[in-house]
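Look at a sample.

——
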Amino acid sequence: MRTAVVIGTGLIGTSAALVLASRGVTVHLVDRDSTRARTAAALGAGTDRAPEGPVDLALVAVPPAHVAATLAEAMRGGIARGYLDVASVKGGPRRELEALGLDLGAYLGTHPMAGKERSGPLAASADLFEGRPWVLTPTRDTDTEVLNLALELVALCRAVPVVMDADAHDRAVALVSHTPQLISSMVAARLADADETAVRLCGQGIRDVTRIAGSDPAMWVDILSANPGPVADVLAGIAADLDETVGALRSLQSADEDKRRAGAEGVEDILRRGNAGRVRVPGKHGTAPAAYEVVAVLISDRPGELARIFADAGRAGVNVEDVRIEHATGQQAGRVQLMVEPSAAPLLTEALRERGWSIRQ
């Protein structure tokens, strides 16, 4: 791959363009908003000048509702040898292209499983895709050359290729991406009119659940409009669980001991099912999640404190597998939770205490 056109210079398109440009590919940036294309070019993602002839790859990074029309225009114009899109929905755009009578041998639908709460070229980064799954949905009609271009792109972005059927992909992302966005937004919506005293009690749990609720609503309307059926199916199952859980909680209020026992069993059932599902979420490096020990350390909100604690952990010969920060309400301090292998926890605890850190249980 020596030349490429990236159509759509938002977060994903600009991030991919940054990678390609850094690897010596001549990248031409196209966006209906010329300001975004110029911004991406200024970031080093390529040039906003049109190519003089056909390029090796056209990467379409526009909202799902516009993918088919954008691809059709590009394919009819013969601007590239191969055409990829990175929309989060795959089945619908492919069927639209088929309905338009286009030759799909030169097209391959893809979806990098990466993103941020922020959008636009200024949110882009060349390391956005590193270690992340990148779904490819080839068909029997896909040209080998186009598949190879897609694999080259994924390799340059240091992502992990995953081959799936397009409709299976759409059902999967409905479960692991689209529904969580809606659930997060629904929980966060409860806070909008909540009493200020209640909001001040927010801790790490509510921050974790509502983190993605800060995403762009217009972007998500586009995504959900392209995959409404599978998302509705998942939500219907969650709604059934909610109804059962509400009933179980009401039973816990009963004066009847048998009803209270049944209510407790109902609540325990959903919690245990949650445990069973949670352990299936891939952990570090895509492996099964490990059972780490948490070493909690009180830390002040001063420059260099995090660097110092990581350096002290390194001097102790302990690898920090994961980290979380819990901020103290109304104080310039917080608690850093260092996740380490269980066998390393006593060593790290002792080493940090010796270096003056305050360990919290």
